[in-house]
Amino acid sequence: MSNIPAIQQALRDAKIDAWLFYDFRHRDPIAHRILGLPMESMATRRWFYLVPAKGGPRKLVHRIESGILDSLPGSKLVYASQDELRKCLPRLLARTKKVAMQYSPKNAIPYVSMVDAGTVELVRSFGRKIVSSADLVQIFEARWTPEQYQSHVEAGRIIDRLREGAFLKAAKHVGSGTALSEYELQQWVLEQFQRNNLATDEPPIVAVGAHAGDPHYEPKASGSSPIRAGDLLLLDLWGKLRTSGSVYYDITWMGYLGVSVPDKYARAFRVVREARDRAVSFVRESVAKGRLIEGWQVDRAAREVIRKAGFAKHFVHRTGHSIGVDVHGNGANMDSLETQDVRRIISRTCFSVEPGLYFADFGVRSEVNVYVDSDEARVTGAVQTEIIPLTT
């Protein structure tokens, strides 16, 4: 297993004695991905896999599924009864004191809280200190290869072009007086994704009017709104190339179906733009100076701009999320609202910066992707500076 030496080095760097992977009925996809285990294998019994900072890995598996970890290196312990399990665990944990698991104290970072409380209690009962694997996870789950970065850039070029096409399509329909609904424009975007060899886990968000005030609005065939002159139009598009290992590109842009953008929309967008740019600048300056920062600090930088503008209660979600093979990845999120994400922002990772303001009758959001390298951070695609008037 090629990851084992890298895991052991990461453990030594973090001064952690071992990483204890545990699964039951495929409850921990993180463990499967990091260890390279197939999710389709039968897993009706508990298994443990311990990677120590030094020495060989060790396995603990049930007798009727004794081969479940055979693809991984290491010695094997086998149990059948619960008494045998409790006798074998201390042997598995031998020469360890501080052990990382997919656990987060008080569920502070729920994205990595895969191990149930009872199993945590069981391991603790043998005198081990359990720490969160959250920072270890992002080393192996959130970091991109150069090839993945290039896949992101290529997906971005296509999606930026399709975003322009979607705005133009909306403008043409409104200009000609022909009907076009949120759902129909969403389906058009999906057709373009298919033609351009892009994959997406969920359809894009196309929202006008009050629907734009719902951050996760989903247009449906029945009940979506028509796109009309005078509407504020929000487009949230995310996709990746249909190639193995490719990563997502995820943006939100705003357009207005008319010649002159109303001042209430323009004012709200200016606040969101300033919050976005402040967060991006904070990351850029910190990385350039070699200063370690955590996800919550980026959120706080954006949120403070919105608070000072008097709109704090209208910014109801985190500033950004990790981006990877999944559109919501397992790296640090830019969050001090929904969680206090204390994970460090590390090199070769990417995340969104997407502050928004949401009101009863409209909403605005601006989303860019920020990639962090060893000595610089950069926005990977086009950046919106004003709401775009959409006319033909």
Description of the structure:
It contains 9 helices and 17 strands. Strands 4-3-2-1-5-6 form a 6-stranded mixed sheet. The chain has 2 domains: 3-141, 3-Layer(aba) Sandwich (Creatine Amidinohydrolase, Chain A, domain 1), CATH 3.40.350.10; 146-389, Alpha-Beta Complex (Creatine Amidinohydrolase). It is 33% helix and 20% strand. It has helices at residues 3-14, 29-35, 82-92, 117-124, 134-141, 146-176, 182-195, 263-288, 295-308, and strands at residues 18-23, 47-52, 58-62, 75-79, 98-101, 129-132, 198-199, 205-208, 232-241, 249-256, 322-323, 349-353, 356-358, 363-365, 368-372, 377-379, 388-389. The mean pLDDT is 97. The protein is elongated, with a radius of gyration of 24 Å. The protein is an alpha+beta fold. α8 runs antiparallel to α9. The termini are far apart.
